[in-house]
């Protein structure tokens, strides 16, 4: 049989558990005045339960999203059913500093939140309980994994030396632009170019100097292209560009600017100051190619013509002999 003494002990144990549990417990009345503020909340807010008791939550924490929380609480009170919000939907309700040394890279504690109705003896909802879970470790691990996966995906699409698209990724875009042209008839031009006499650069100055020349070429390329253009390293000293919404004269203007910028520059390497040129082939897409590989072949033919005619030139495919 429960005696008043037993009930007092049970109440004491319950309150001791609420104070020590590693979950934030906040009980609010329907006017959002704080009635319970357990040890977890005291520890992370630096506010004691007695100092916050009876105060309106939004007055004490003005950065809490008031409209969002009141909508959630009103729905819980009306339906008399709990609701749950994860850190992925909203990173946190209370802006608590992250104090975990292992996950110290995150500035604030990530939180899951349960909002539960507390009914009185007549069955009506009279108070609301907020349960705040610290999920910083889980969230940090998830975010780190997503970041790593994104980096791996980028690496799989990118040439490591230049940061340009690698051959496979770039060729997929050629195919996509070819199909888009066939569907919508938009202008698009393909460009292939490579560095003139690159082998002597490597043989005379070493592969590190050759890498510097390749990186310099990629930088000049990106500085002279538009945001809508796609550049890739096709292999070795050969590069490619897709110029959407661009006809032959427009492509010629862009490519001449690139050719001149490279011809007028000097690459300062540890071994020597290197000057070099590039040869460029342009192939505006016409009705003739049956697939993107034939279109790519046209750009290669124009590039070959530029080299055959003395290098340091830009040749349009329709003008190639």
List the topology elements.
Blueprint: H1 4-20, E1 24-29, E2 34-37, H2 39-45, H3 49-52, H4 57-60, H5 66-79, E3 83-85, E4 111-119, E5 125-134, H6 136-157, H7 167-184, E6 188-195, H8 198-205, H9 207-223, E7 230-235, E8 238-244, H10 248-263, E9 267-268, E10 273-274, E11 278-284, H11 292-308, E12 314-316
Parallel strand pairs: 11-12
Antiparallel strand pairs: 1-2, 1-5, 3-4, 4-5, 6-8, 6-11, 7-8, 9-10
Helix pairs in contact: 7-11, 8-9
Task: Walk me through this protein's architecture.
The structure is a single chain. The chain is of the alpha+beta class. The protein has 2 domains: 4-143, 2-Layer Sandwich (Beta-Lactamase), CATH 3.30.450.20; 158-319, Alpha-Beta Plaits, CATH 3.30.70. It has helices spanning 4-20, 39-45, 49-52, 57-60, 66-79, 136-157, 167-184, 198-205, 207-223, 248-263, 292-308; strands spanning 24-29, 34-37, 83-85, 111-119, 125-134, 188-195, 230-235, 238-244, 267-268, 273-274, 278-284, 314-316. The strands form 3 sheets. The protein has a 5-stranded antiparallel β-sheet.
